[in-house]
Write a structure and sequence with these properties.
The chain has 5 helices and 4 strands, in the order H-E-E-E-H-H-E-H-H. The chain is α+β, with helices and mostly antiparallel strands. It has a 4-stranded mixed beta sheet with strand order 1-2-4-3.
Length: 169
């Protein structure tokens, strides 16, 4: 039985981790076609437990000064991604990999839906081809070293133990 296509863009598909976002933009590879820049990073199969592709969508403040315009372009990009995400998701599932992706609107003027969709589809196709080449070369990212997260957890555990010690005294 085949799985039905979902056109939702839920929480499980959004890239929200600060550590992963910073790693995406430092270690990832970019593909640009004005006014869209797509940055991607390929991970091992079990990197994400809930989705094979995670996406962050942004609009450059340098290009679009007004927040209203940035929000409009982000809304359009979310809609375009939502309607055209299936080739990427199917590709990632077939290749047993996970992909982090950042989509950034870098234009300085507002664009209409049709223009953005045409550019996005071209960039997405190029990204899938580039990911295929990276996988053939074995360029898969390993999980990030979360020293900062480990320290925060240790500090939290220490605070909890100190508070419970003071309550017992």
């Amino acid at each position: 039985m085949s799985q039905s296509l979902s056109f939702a863009f839920g929480r499980h598909e959004r890239l929200k981790s600060d550590v992963l976002i910073s790693r995406l933009y430092t270690d990832g590879k970019s593909i640009s076609k004005y006014p869209v820049r797509l940055t991607y990073l390929v991970h091992t199969q079990d990197f994400y437990s809930d989705s094979s592709v995670k996406v962050s969508i942004n609009a450059s403040k340098k290009g679009l000064r007004l927040a209203v315009n940035r929000n409009r372009m982000k809304r359009l990009l979310r809609e375009i991604y939502r309607h055209n995400k299936h080739p990427l998701i199917n590709f990632a599932r077939a290749r047993n990999c996970c992909v982090s992706m950042g989509i950034v609107y870098v234009g300085s003027q507002l664009n209409d839906y049709e223009t953005l969709e045409r550019v996005f589809i071209k960039v997405l196709r190029r990204a899938i081809e580039a990911i295929e080449i990276d996988l053939a070369k074995g360029l898969i990212s390993s999980p990030p070293h979360s020293n900062r997260l480990d320290k925060e957890k240790t500090n939290t555990d220490n605070l909890k133990s100190k508070s419970s010690d003071s309550e017992n005294a």
